[in-house]
Fold:
Amino acid sequence: MGLFDNPDALLPGLLPALWRGRQFWVPDARHSVGRRIIAQLYPGLDLKTHEDHGALDGPIKLSGLVIGDDYIAQAKALERAFRQPGPGTLMHPWRGEITCVLLRPAEISYAADELRVARLDMEFDPTTSPGLGLVSTLAGLVSALGGLFAAASGLAATLLSVAPMALAIWTRGTTATGTA
Structure:
């Protein structure tokens, strides 16, 4: 039995994770949670609206390690998994199974002073369920229409504030020339 056959015993605190069935070990994981808010600014108007595009769950950032005598072969297997198109299954060490896509290219690094270890940096984005795609698109459309209505009402208010001045100028001009 080799020294690196049991990474759990070698480095306590590492938790196992899988991407498309390829295992690696995770000392650190982070993810963003909140709402997807987009600020809309309208040129020429002192109007700013905020559109809520729904819940934000992600991205998920993982730092990982590949450990073992065959660490280069394991890293190459992960390279192939990272290159596959479309969503895949991430078995997160704390959150469990998540269907997601690789958001940015993963980084695999090797160092001469860390033999039998490859380091990984990955960022994943959870995918939505098929039924929610249409709902979120419709919600975005309704929100965009609300923003357009706010812009139109702001433009109308601006035009209405200019109209009395334009009428006064026209009236004064026609009175001065005697054509009225």
User: Anything to note?
Assistant: The longest strand covers residues 22-41. Strands lie at 15-19, 22-41, 48-67, 88-92, 96-102, 107-110, 117-126. The chain is about 35% helix and 40% strand. Residues 13 and 94 are 12 Å apart (CA to CA).
